[in-house]
Amino acid sequence: MLTTGITTKKVVSLSMMTNKIYFLLALFVHMSIVNAQQSIDTLVYHSAQQKTVFILTATAGYYHKEAIPAGKQLLQKLAEKNTFNLMHSSQSKALEAMDLSQTAAVVFLCTTLDILDKKQEEVFQGFIRNGGGFVGIHAAADTEYDWPWYGQLVGAYFESHPPGTPLARLTTIDPQNPFTNHLPQSWEIYDEWYNYNFQNPNIISLLNLEESSYAGGKNGPKHPISWYHSFDGGRSFYTGLGHKAEVYEDPRFVQFLEKGLAYAMGVSF
What we know:
Elements: H1 2-38, E1 41-44, E2 52-56, H2 67-82, E3 85-89, H3 94-97, E4 103-109, H4 118-129, E5 133-137, H5 148-154, E6 156-160, E7 167-172, E8 186-190, E9 195-198, E10 204-210, E11 224-231, E12 234-239, H6 251-265
Parallel strand pairs: 2-3, 2-4, 4-5, 5-12
Antiparallel strand pairs: 1-3, 6-9, 7-8, 7-10, 10-11, 11-12
C-alpha cells in the first residue's frame, strides 16, 4: 500500500507539472500574439467597411532611413484621399496578427534581406493565393533571396547598383496604358538605379530604364524598372524607384504608385 501511495503522488505531481507546462505554453502563445498586435500601427482608419492596406517595413540589412518615412507619408496621403484603411509595422510577426482576410494589399516598403520565418512565409503565401495584392517598392527586390516563390512574386531580385543617385532617363513603354497614361513617353528623374536578376518572364514592363543615360547599368537595352503581373492567384506591382525621399513627392511617381496600389487592391480610385 505504501508503494501505491507513492506512485499516486508521483502521478498527481506529474499531472500538475504537465498542466503547468501547458499553462506556460498557452501564456507564451498569448503574449506572442499580444506583442505582434501591439507592433501594428494604425495610420489611417475610416471604417470596418473600407478596404485595408498593410505596410511592412521590416529590415534585416540596409535601412532606408529617408525613403521609409517618406513612403509611409505618401501612402498615408493616398489612404486619406482614396478612403482606405492603412496599417503599418516594422516587424514581420505582425503578418500573423493582421486579419489578412480583410486586407486588400500588402506593401513591402524598402524591406531588406531575410525578414520572414517559415510561418510568416506560409501566412503571406496564403494571402496571395487567396487573391490578395502585393506592392513592392525599391528594396522589396532586395528581400527573401532564399525563397524562390517570393522572387517570382516580385519578378526580380536586386543584383547591384552604381554609386549615388544619378539622373537617368525612363521610357514609358505604353503611354496609353492606364498605369502610365499620365506620363510622358520619355522623362528623367534622380534615384538609385538597380540592376536585376529577373525571376519571372511573365512580368509586364511599364517603365524601361535607359542605360545610355547614366553609368553602371548591367541589364542592357531592356531594363525594366517598374512592372506588374498576376501571380499564383494574386496581383503584384513593383517599382524600382523610391530610394530618394524626393521621389515620393514627385507628382509623376505619386500618381504612378497610386495606380499600382489600386491594381494590387483590385479597385479603381
